[in-house]
Write a structure and sequence with these properties.
Blueprint (H helix, E strand, L loop, with lengths): L23 E5 L5 E5 H17 L7 E5 L4 H12 L3 E4 L9 H15 L3 E4 L1 H14 L5 E2 H4 L15 E6 L9 E5 H15 L7 E3 L6 H14 L3 E3 L2 H6 L1 H10 L4 E4 L1 H10 L15 E4 L6 H11 L9 E6 L6 E4 L8 E2 L13 E2 L3 E2 L3 E6 L12 E7 L6 E2 L10 E3 L2 E11 L2 E7 L3 E4 L2 E4 H10 L7 E8 L2 E9 L5 H12 L4 E7 L14 H10 L5
Parallel strand pairs: 1-10, 3-4, 3-5, 5-6, 9-10, 9-11, 11-12, 12-13, 27-28
Antiparallel strand pairs: 1-2, 7-8, 8-20, 13-14, 14-17, 15-16, 18-19, 19-22, 21-22, 22-23, 24-25, 26-27
Length: about 550
């Protein structure tokens, strides 16, 4: 294995000095076009942004909210805020929400939490964000193009803020919470990711994930820029409209690293036919990092079968686990390790038991333990709560009240994740949220496991959510389906009966876009459970 010294611990703004003109970021344009911006030009734009922010009164440790799509302006706003000594916070633009009222409710909460000194928008976001700022009595946003117009760049970056980001959690368990990510924690996590993946400046990366999500922001964009590698950046809708374009870019540009949630794999399998892959070559691809949601082993095997004839290898998949409170990455596989799937002790072979894909070993500087209800470590193969510590957690804190119904807590450099999992031979296997499960007959059953079984039986990914709990003292499993096909009801009956034979089954049909989801598409199970119990779920 290559020594860590080959992948140095780089400062977050080191790239601004002597930025190369031959490497940079490629932003997807119409059809198959790409707009190249060298790191040299991005460095100048970043320092211009820093000077403009300082001229508008932004000072060290102030918060600058950035509401923009992936673009040169977004990259310059993010790193420009850091270069001004401020703390940037990337918030989802309106495109991430299907209903304007949902977006307004979401961003109102985020803006109250972040309390920005200034907000930078693009034109698509300006009207909606201006409405939020006016309603909250916050300074009106500025358009990026107007912010940097006729401004001379700063000669050098100002000292870094204490916290490099305010990163919001997904909100799958309730309202999103703001996490202050310490500058040292971000630097340590980026370095650990680069060393785990063997990411060098000559290794190009590609991402279609939104930059308001930590997987797309820290996992992809920030890693690309700090490493100094070429980065190819698509909008999420580019991938959804034409996943072949994404695959073609990997092939034609010999791209080495990419990342996505399990949803992306399922989407490729649905939309890409083998004939569309003729002439492609994926032999340069070394890592597809997988995270943000439960990983389906059948999807991994199916993608291997689809892309294998064109140079794709099993060891390219590098499953990982992480979260905003831990900056991002907690565990992960290295390229060519090869993924495995397992079940907790005593569960192998039981009806309804899903195989769990391992999420790798703790990253450099990170500690992971699995504890029981009395905070004692459990043996290998035994399910408990995942608890995280180390350099990627130290210095991080919540903005405002730390309490939450999600079960996650962060204090004194220790993250109690609220996630259930088990260790086996040093590798972490994640089952789901402790609060999204139900215990019956001595067995814990998780909503994510049941949703995985539904997908195996033909229910479309992200079109069904399982809600588990007790209503009036009765164990209940509700399967909420959006735009359901007739055969989905029978699949839901089969899945719930085999795993929870004594639970009451509710089949709930909602209209298209009727599932409550986060800005990254995760089901908001606790919100829907509350609505179900109150009789307000829109059926």
């Amino acid at each position: 294995m290559t020594r860590p010294e080959s992948y140095p611990d780089r400062a977050l703004l080191e790239w601004l000095t002597d930025a190369p003109a031959e490497r940079g970021l490629y932003f997807a344009g119409p059809r198959d076009s790409w707009d190249f911006h060298s790191y040299r030009s991005l460095a100048r734009l970043t320092l211009t942004t820093a000077a403009a922010l300082r001229a508008l009164g932004v000072r060290r440790n102030d918060v600058v909210v950035v509401v923009q799509r992936s673009s040169p302006g977004f990259a310059a706003s993010l790193f420009g805020a850091l270069a001004a000594g401020a703390t940037p916070s990337s918030i989802a633009p309106p495109f991430a929400f299907q209903r304007s009222e949902d977006y307004q409710r979401h961003v109102d909460h985020l803006f109250r939490t972040a309390a920005p000194a200034l907000t930078i928008c693009d034109e698509d976001s300006f009207e909606a964000v201006g409405k939020t700022c006016a309603g909250l009595g916050i300074r009106q946003p500025v358009l990026f193009d107007e912010l940097v117009r006729d401004v001379e760049p700063a000669s050098a970056p100002y000292p870094l803020p204490d916290h490099a980001l305010i990163q919001f959690t997904s909100g799958s368990s309730g309202f999103s919470r703001g996490v202050r990510v310490a500058s040292d924690a971000l630097r340590a996590n980026v370095t650990a990711t680069r060393r785990r993946l063997g990411w060098r400046p000559e290794d190009a990366g590609i991402s279609w994930m939104p930059v308001h999500h930590d997987f797309g922001l820290t996992g992809c964009l920030i890693n690309m820029v700090v490493t100094g590698s070429d980065g190819w950046l698509m909008q999420p809708e580019h991938f959804l409209r034409d996943p072949v374009r994404y695959l073609r870019c990997i092939s034609e540009n010999r791209i080495g690293l990419t990342a996505m949630p399990n949803f992306g794999l399922a989407y490729i399998l649905r939309r890409v036919r083998p004939a569309a892959l003729e002439g492609m070559d994926f032999s340069a691809l070394r890592s597809v990092s997988l995270g943000a949601e439960r990983i389906d082993p059948d999807a991994l095997e199916a993608v291997e079968a689809l892309l294998g004839p064109y140079g794709f290898r099993r060891g390219v998949f590098t499953p990982a686990y992480g979260g905003a409170e831990a900056t991002l990455g907690v565990t992960g596989l290295a390229p060519d390790e090869g993924w495995t799937a397992s079940a907790p002790d005593g569960e192998d072979g039981r009806p309804g038991t899903a195989r769990i894909v391992g999420c790798g070993r703790p990253m450099e500087g990170v500690t992971v333990s699995v504890l029981d209800e009395d905070d004692r470590p459990v043996p290998d193969g035994t399910v408990g709560e995942i608890v995280v510590g180390g350099t990627s957690v130290t210095g991080n804190s919540y903005v405002g009240e730390a309490g939450s119904a999600s079960g996650t807590s962060l204090a004194s450099g220790v993250l109690r994740s609220g996630d259930a999992g088990f260790l086996r031979d040093g590798q972490l296997f994640v089952l789901g949220r402790l609060g999204d499960g139900i215990k019956m007959n001595g067995k814990m059953v998780f909503a994510e496991s049941l949703e995985g079984r539904l997908h195996e039986l033909g229910v479309t990914e992200r079109r069904a959510a399982v809600l588990l709990g007790f209503r009036d003292g009765v164990a209940t499993a509700a399967v909420v389906m959006e735009g359901a096909k007739p055969e989905w009801d029978e699949a839901a009956r089969e899945v719930v009966t085999e795993s929870l034979p004594d639970a009451e089954l509710l089949l709930v049909h909602v209209r298209r876009s009727g599932l409550a989801v986060t800005s990254s598409g995760k089901p908001r199970r606790r919100l829907m459970w509350k609505q179900l119990c109150e009789g307000t779920l829109a059926v």
